[in-house]
Amino acid sequence: MIRYLAAALVAALLSFTALAQDAPRTIEMKVDGLVCAFCAQGISKKLGRMEATQEVLVNLEKGVVAVALKPGQDLSDEALRGVLTEAGYSVQGIQRSAETLDTLRARLKAAP
């Protein structure tokens, strides 16, 4: 009986770990109105202050703002849209993925 419970516990932990790895880690937003380094710095500060934020990426050339989430954390689309709208930007789309910011950075750099 104890072996069965131990095996079930291990299986549950492995399933949880797999789910956590597949959970969205990055929120990528298409934003209109990004024109200068000052814009990028302001957005980075505002989003960086949010408790769930681990790191922020702003790509002026592509009009992309991305937030890497801390493990187990999330931010609602409404909260993100609110911060960016309040700062004077227009959010055209929000996408969540398991992609890291480093991978996103490389993809944005390679895109025409």
UniProtKB/TrEMBL annotation:
Which positions fall inside the HMA domain? 25-92
Record has Signal as a keyword: yes
Annotated signal peptide = 1-20
The record's section on Gene3D superfamilies has: 3.30.70.100
Q: Which InterPro entries match?
A: HMA_dom (IPR006121), HMA_dom_sf (IPR036163)
Quote the SUPFAM superfamilies the UniProt record gives.
HMA, heavy metal-associated domain
What GO MF terms are annotated?
metal ion binding
Looking up Pfam families in the UniProt record yields: HMA
Is-annotated flag, keyword Signal? yes
Q: Entry's CDD domains?
A: HMA (cd00371)
Alphabetized, the UniProt keywords read:
Signal
Highest rank taxon of the organism: Bacteria
Q: What is this protein called?
A: HMA domain-containing protein
